[in-house]
Amino acid sequence: MSLEAEFGIASARKALDHAGVEPSDIDLVICSASHHQRPYPAIAIEMQQAMGTKGAGFDMGLGCSSAAAALHIAVNLVRAGAHRRVLVTTPEIITGHLNFRDRQTHFIFGDASVSMVVEGLAQGDKRPGRFEVLDTRTWTQMSNNIRTNLGYYTRTAQDDPYMINLEGNLIKQVGNKVFKEVTVAGHQFIVEFLAEHGLTPQAIRRFWLHQANARMNAMILKLSFGHEVGHDRAPMVLERLGNTAGAGAVVALAENHADMNAGDYGLLCAFGAGYSIGGALLRML
Question: Which of the two residues, 155 and 66, has the higher pLDDT score?
């Protein structure tokens, strides 16, 4: 079994147990991560076989917005009636793609795996402690400020096609530009997304934001609220786990939602390479 599939299955089994469903109840597996171990066969299909899920599976990625983007797809597939119950898994193994000589990136990242189960909610159905997904959204804008050049054509640009020089081909980022540009984009995304539903940031009980930069999150929320926001409103797990790419915001949600009351709103929002942003407006049932 591949390392990524094994890592994904570890969190997938926890998600299935939490949802109270069996693998055979799942009819689609989406494996969405910023870095995949291989292009094919899909990691999701390997997970499907190992766990015994039904239907199909496919891989996708959208940088650090991978989990949120997959949730966006899963929710809309269920709403459209194309699938009944979808397993979204984001196994982020970033350490395998780091240049440990690059002080801009190597110490920032960590590895984590998260999974979510998305299913339809019948009229009047009661699911205390679960979240209703009210809406999802994605946004992208081309930027090279977070970039990797390692791929299956990398060797074609080198003298020896059987030896890949990793120098210059691993993760690179221009941190100061990313901070400025993503802060502005993140703030605008949050305010506009909530406004579409007649909500302001003040109406949201909890924000689970991308776990990459505490200062960036604080600035995005300060711009959105007009004042500083504390840990209870926007919890961080960054200091313990590092930047776990697409997994971080979901970890923050998993560890910081049990105290929410029925009817409370929450916003899952991740941002990263692309640039990309993915968001989900949730309500506690």
Answer: 66
Answer yes or no: same fold for 3-119 and 131-284.
yes
In this predicted model, what pLDDT tens digit does every residue of 62-94 receive, in sequence order?
Answer: 999 999 999 999 999 999 999 999 999 999 999
pLDDT of residue 191: 98
| Domain 3-119 falls under CATH 3.40.47.10 | yes
72: left (phi over 0), alpha (psi -120 to 50) or beta: alpha
Question: CATH fold of 131-284, please?
Answer: Peroxisomal Thiolase; Chain A, domain 1 (3.40.47)
Phi, psi of 160 (to 5 degrees): -110, 105
Sequence ranges of the domains in the chain = 3-119, 131-284
Which residues carry out catalysis?
64
pTM: 0.96
